[in-house]
Amino acid sequence: MSIVSPGFSGRRRSADDRLPPGQYLTHDFPVLSAGPTQRVTTAQWEFTITTEAGQAHRWSWSDLMSLTSEEITTDIHCVTKWSKLGTTWRGVPLDTFFEDIDTAADYALAYSYGGYTTNLPLDDLLDNRSWITWEFEGEPLTPEHGGPVRLLVPHLYFWKSAKWIRGLRLAFEDEPGFWESVGYHEYGDPWREQRYQGD
Could you name the CATH architecture of 2-29+44-192? Predict the structure, then answer.
């Protein structure tokens, strides 16, 4: 199955129409991380969603590979002002993981191997808006880019697409993650230039 994110099909638009304010186009894929590159094997990797009631739902690498995956073509935008257009990924929508999860939570804190965290409204993870991904441009994700598995939330600045994703903790109240706790915007909409608190 292949999908194209809404807004990137139909009438062909110029690159400028696809660049949020203040962004520049790059053909590279810059490597930026909050800490050292994590080296997690597929045998070690596990993904856990913990509900607000403390119930944990877990998936191994083999569990992930058994789920129906999609090819996603989308633009990505980094808070450091670069944008990369028409990137292609393979992954499983977060909706799939939530099919059997009973939650009334409004927020999620994504956490990674290595200790990185980032907060997101739960609505931004559902309705085919985010994925758990393991391929980029037809190749396995390298550790530098978050492999073996990273979160992909392309409608927000790319720091929300946590590398080396390990799990989500659901909650009724928002809890700032790593960058949000040092002054980055709580939400991070590139089209509204929500880079820092107060933007």
Answer: Alpha-Beta Complex (3.90)
DSSP string, 56-84: EEEEEHHHHHHSPPEEEEEEEE-TTSEEE
**Is 145:29 a contact under the CB 8 Å cutoff?**
yes
Residues 91 and 60: beta-carbon distance below 8 Å? no
DSSP 16: H
Query: Cα(86)–Cα(82) distance, rounded to whole angstroms?
Result: 14
| pTM of structure | 0.90
Give tens-digit pLDDT for 54-89: 999 999 999 999 999 999 999 999 999 999 999 999
> How far apart, in whole angstroms, are the C-alpha atoms of residue 144 and residue 8?
27
